[in-house]
Amino acid sequence: MSLTDVIDGTRKAVDADPHNAAVSFSVDHTLKPGTRTEVAVKVRDHEFTVDEPPALGGTDQAANPVEFALAALGSCQVITYQFWAAKRGIPIDSIKVTVDGDLDLHGFFGFSLNTRPGFGDVRVSVELEGPASRERYEDLKREVDEHCPVLDLFRNETPVSTKLT
Asked: Transmembrane ranges (predicted)?
């Protein structure tokens, strides 16, 4: 199935019932020895591991949470570029996205109350190859920046509630 088929099918389903546009995701996390965390995606039956490097108390068996956050942003960018290129009929031969982020551990460890624990700066670099004009790729970039769900998480405050049980 092509991406345009996915887009058209989704449009028809949402036009038929707007509730079809609402989706939810759920992920379970279980602490293992050290800082290793086993992650299970409930509905789609995928699993992966998250860990920290030894300098942060981990066993370095996997990427850490902030690396996965950058990976989520980069992969969402790649996917969103594919969808919007298909939607706009813009040919792309290849997409490469690099995401870099700077974090100050003063905030995570509570060494400074004036330093946020999250990223202070995130940079996304996108390399597109294809036969379209630079102007069409710039228009595509604007569409992707407007519609990428994970980029939206990085750019905008999102309500989050936590409950201790």
From this structure: none
